Amino acid sequence: MESLIDIVLLAFLVGIAFAIVWMKDLLAVIMLLGIYGLLSASFFVAMDAVDVAFTEASVGAGISTLLMLVTIAMTGRSEHPVRHKPFLALAVVIITGSLLIYGTLDMPYFGSAQAPVHQHVAPRYINDSIEEVGVPNIVTSVLASYRAFDTFGEVVVIFTAGMGVLALLSVVRRPKNTTGDKARDIAKIDLINDSMHEQHLVLRIVTKMLIPFIFLYAFYVQFHGDYGPGGGFQAGVIFASAIFLYAMLFGMSTARRVINQSFIQLLAAIGVLLYGSVGVVSLLNGKNFFDYSALSVDPIAGQHLGILLIELGVGCTVASVMVIIFFSFADRKDNGQNLESNGIENNLKENNKK
Amino acid sequence: MLIAATLAILIVMVMAITRGIMGPTLYDRILAVNMFGTKTVLLISLLGFVMGRPEFLDIAIVYALINFISVIGVLRYSDSSIFKHSNQQKK
Amino acid sequence: MLTHLPVLQVIVPLMAAPLCLFLTRSRLVWLFALMVSGLAFLISALLLQQVMTSGIIIYELGGWDAPWGIEYRIDHLNAFLLLIISSVSTVVLLAADTSIQKEIPAEKHSYFYILYLLSLAGMLGIVATGDAFNVFVFLEISSLSAYALIALGKDRRALWAAYQYLIMGTIGATFILIGIGLMYQMTGTLNMHDLSIRLPEVAHTRTVFTAFAFVIVGICLKLALFPLHLWLPNAYAYAPSIVTAFFAATATKVAIYLLIRFTFSVFGLSFSFTALPLHILFLVLGLSGIFAASIAAIYQKNVKHLFAYSSIAQIGYMIVGFSVSTTTGLMATLLHLFNHALMKSALFLALGAVMYRIGSVQLSQFQGLGRQMPITMAAIVIGGLSLIGVPLTVGFVSKWYLILAVIESGWWPVALLILLGSLLAVVYVWRIVEMAYFRPPLTSNENIKEAPFSLLVPIWILVMANIYFGIDTRLSIEVAQAASQSLFGVNP
Amino acid sequence: MDTFINISSSVFLLTGSFLCISGGVGILRFPDFYTRMHAVGVTETLATAMILIGLMLHNPDFFVDIKLMIILIMSLFISPTASHALASAAMRNDFSQKNNEKPDSEQVKPWNP
Amino acid sequence: MLMGLYNYWIVVVLMMVGFYIVIAHGNLIKKIVGLSIFQTSVFIFYISMAKVDGGTAPILADGITQYSNPLPHVLILTAIVVGIATTALGLALAVRIKETYGSIEEEEIQKKDNLDC
């Protein structure tokens, strides 16, 4: 039964991947990508990777789809039908693929318990982590204690992305100097933007009821990560997605009033610093960086405290960076229409010069 | 019974994907994606039972949530896209 | 605190980056970033000294022993690289405050410093770590910040260059990820030292061969080795001058470090050079890189483009040294790594000074600059001489050892080709010299003055280093020798 | 008692599966968007509820049941809302049936260099 | 062999489909879509190797002896984050490119660049 589900899900994935290659309408492509994310997450559940499925569902199917949707709203939906050098690309792909297939031939078989992967490092995590770290979810204990430094790197990666997006997209708010046609255009665009949240009364009410529960659920995921799937990253994403929902239905300007830009930036920084400072405290107590047993007299209590704090740091950074990224995109879109028309005019001018 | 239900859901997923790929209109696709999402929620819940560890239903909750958010997202950002449907431009 | 130096090396810039958000004024952020980078330099110097006296330093993060937790393993090679990266970063940052005033809008200054520090921390992290997956994580920190930094360039082509770099860089990183996964699958471990012990048992399998190929191709994408170099010229040419100076001196060096680390330490010398015909492959790619890029450099109209192509050529020299795979060859590669970092950061900083005054680095704008900006142009000339490999500059030292290594292995024609490559360097450097000293100034540039003091100081620190290490080679040669010997398993 | 619960669980699951499949046939076979929408919207909520109730009966563990209940309540809220939003968005764009015959690519502004 | 390795082979196909989209398509958004398919497939590869027959999710519970390997899960959690970070940055670049060049097709951008030179 399990292998049947496995095969069916993989077949779905292949079908969708090929459909994505052929499709020209980017909106459809992105929706299929969302399905691809959901499917791979289901596959992860079938492969016992519940934490990964959690993350992939919220990130692969949720956040990245949403970001792409905002982007194509700015860049347009249809793809230029001509491909460049398809045969060269095909050749490269076939060579790479056959090399990989060649590499799989000596692999230990799928699911085999004798594979080296399950022999060398992993058994200690499975057998001893409960005594050494004291957390039932092994993934959490590896993530937050044994390989805490990787996770710190992960938090910094997401922080870097946030800063990068800000550096690229942050809009300096200027008073709109709008006259004549352009003013009418912008008013029209505002009208269209607003129309969504004026008409969908049902949506707004349901969302209003839903949002507190989403926040509650995010906190549950945050603090339940030790015992089940979940943790700071997933909680951060869920928290952020509630804010996205609010921003999408009630308009960016309303959301901006709730969430202040510089505050959220500081929050992102505070998350990283909270994570890092746990390490620094253990340094100051004379132990190695991220050695949580330095945090408390009882090593296990120290581990618990350390994991709790770093998960908080992760959640804090992830939620705020996701909000920063989404708001940067959405702001760019709302202010972008006039920016963009300027850009196109400039291009026209340049072309005329030549 | 669980297996029968799982199979039924897998079949429905095939149908939803077909509609999602075939289109022909944007709204058909959104409908298909939404349907696919709800079926995934069911599939995950069922998988938990099939594999004997049903306590991981948290994931299904997230799926339901994400599904809702993506549908709202698609509606929000395809409506006011600069490539609007012809009728909106008429307004 | 001395025992914690390895982790402090990475943690200090990493944690300083978010702290920058709390500082409000651009000047303050700059001072803070400079201080942090200086501290990192100090730490790396201490680390190098420790390694030279007492051998390999091992630091276990989280207190977990090696294959279960992540460990930092600092040997001569790492310490040398850490020193190069942190020193260049510090000197380049000295010039940052003045240079970015003209090139980056004021509201983005603090993001610039944050990304710069993150990029620095990422590179230091790649070099310091002894865990294969940790390499990937820090590689992404440094790359993501690099994409954003390059996109900050004034020209719109900077955006396109950054996008191309993002695509190529991510493909490279994903290839490395696949390679690490395959290695992990066959050995069950991620620790590099542990991998090097466990890989020989499974070295004959096709999976390990594939893993090796993917890691090498992935690194070569990051390295901009000749046929995979297409992202580099535009990325360097349109990035802000400070960014170019920093990346030209460090980013490709880190990739070379990874190449050396994976081929020599992880897979082991005997496997690496028998599984694939690496000798001949890298020799051919390196040499064709030298010639193709040098010739391309000659035809460039933009001086930043010119030096970017020259960077690709210099990477070719390092790869040739690597392909010889003897202690001397590797030593030549390491020396050239150090020396090239010095030359290119000096040259690109000097171009930054030209950019500051003129606002463009088109070759045609250089007319008569020798008289208007004599100090800056003198720096460019000395840097150029060093690129060519004239005696008394650092360029000479590394070329000398490279040729020595090639001749030791009996590859006479290669030595000749290397000399020929240097002649091509003469041509492209001469084009600039001719423009700057033998043409009258452009009328539009009549009021150009010498670059400000704050730019000249870091430029000349680097130029003096170029000359100093060209004359007094003790430090660089001693460290490079120790590093290459330890890689070959000889006790220094 | 156990057999009764088992049987009722099976009945719920089977009814749910049947409704699911009928919705799936609907989305494939119906001629235009609104009828497809109708097929999916009507069956979806009930099918989800049936299957979830079947699962609840299948496993009487308290926490699992609570979670299933949360999923059920959420989908009872979300599915109709999403359907409503979709339908009204389609309506608002005056998405009439004559429009429907045109494939997607024609509604999208063609790419012009 | 077929039963033992089909999983990996399908994953290879998926990876290559993603890789093909990245290198053969000229649309910047499509390239990023390809990149994310490519990366997701690598995740699937890692997770596949963690599976043990008869094992369950690596969350300790009474009465279960066989667990799947938790380490690849941890690695992929990190890699997913890296993936979304790359996607976000790539999309931000695409937006800026659209604003300054007026196009997100590779060929057009290249054409405009050549005009500039």
Q: Write down how many β-strands of chain C occur, each being a DSSP E stretch of 2 or more residues.
A: 2
- Provide a count of the helices of chain D: 5
- Quaternary status of these chains? heteropentamer
Q: SSE order of chain D, as H and E?
A: HHHHH
Whole-number radius of gyration of chain D? 19 Å
Helix-strand layout with pairing:
The complex is a heteropentamer of chains A (354), B (91), C (492), D (113) and E (117).
Chain B: H1 2-22, H2 26-50, H3 58-79, H4 86-90
Helix pairs in contact in B: 1-2, 2-3
Chain D: H1 2-29, H2 33-58, H3 62-92, H4 97-100, H5 104-107
Helix pairs in contact in D: 1-2, 2-3
Chain E: H1 2-24, H2 28-50, H3 70-101, H4 106-116
Helix pairs in contact in E: 1-2, 2-3
Q: How would you describe the overall organization of this protein?
A:
The complex is a heteropentamer of chains A (354), B (91), C (492), D (113) and E (117). Chain A has 354 residues and is mainly alpha-helical. Helices cover 79% and strands 0% of the residues of chain A. In chain A, α9 (201-224) runs antiparallel to α10 (232-250). Chain A starts with a helix and ends with a helix. Chain C is mainly α and 492 residues long. In chain C, α2 runs antiparallel to α3. In chain C, 67% of the residues are buried. The model of chain C has no long low-confidence stretch (mean pLDDT 89). With 113 residues, chain D is mainly alpha-helical. Chain D has helices spanning 2-29, 33-58, 62-92, 97-100, 104-107. In chain D, α1 packs antiparallel against α2 (33-58) and α2 packs antiparallel against α3 (62-92). The termini of chain D are far apart. The chains are: A mainly alpha (354), B mainly alpha (91), C mainly alpha (492), D mainly alpha (113), E mainly alpha (117). Chains in contact: A-B, A-C, A-D, A-E, B-D, B-E, C-E. The interface between A and E is large, with 106 and 91 residues.
Essential attributes:
heteropentamer; D: 113 residues; mainly alpha; disordered C terminus; E: 117 residues; Helix Hairpins
Quick recap of the structure?
Chain B is mainly α.
